[in-house]
Amino acid sequence: MQSKKNPKKDLSKNSSLYFAIGLCLMLFISWRVIEIKTPQTLETYELTRLIEDFDEDIPVTIENLKIPLPIKRDPVDFEIKNKFLNLIMEKSFQFGLNKIADAFQKRAEKI
């Protein structure tokens, strides 16, 4: 029994070339499909006119709002048995609250 395949007609030796040609063809088709321009119908024309009418500049108004300053509160009482650690904790917490209050104050002055 003889093989019916002709070794001169073997397509597998050029398969990478055919693959590259297929990729290029699909890229070209995809590009053309994306770039298709549809004819403008009356409805789309009316919609674009309606959108253009809304493109008017709206004046921006800025009102000076008075922002209430943050209230400085008394130090929070922590239940730590060590007096030294308690003192450090209270001072650092108060320092953090003061920093936050100062930041709010600076932001309120900018606005």
Describe this structure in words.
The protein is an all-alpha fold. It has a domain at 78-111. Helix content is 54%, strand content 0%. The longest helix is centred in the last third of the chain and has 28 residues, at 83-110. It is elongated and about 100 Å long.
List the helices and strands and how they pair.
Blueprint: H1 15-34, H2 42-53, H3 83-110
Spatial separation of the terminal alpha carbons = 94 Å
Q: Return the average pLDDT rounded to an integer.
A: 78
- Parts with pLDDT < 50 across at least 5 consecutive residues: none
The helix content is 40-55%
Biggest sheet features: none
What distinguishing features does this structure have?
mainly alpha, 111 residues
Can you give me a brief rundown of this structure?
The protein is an all-alpha fold.
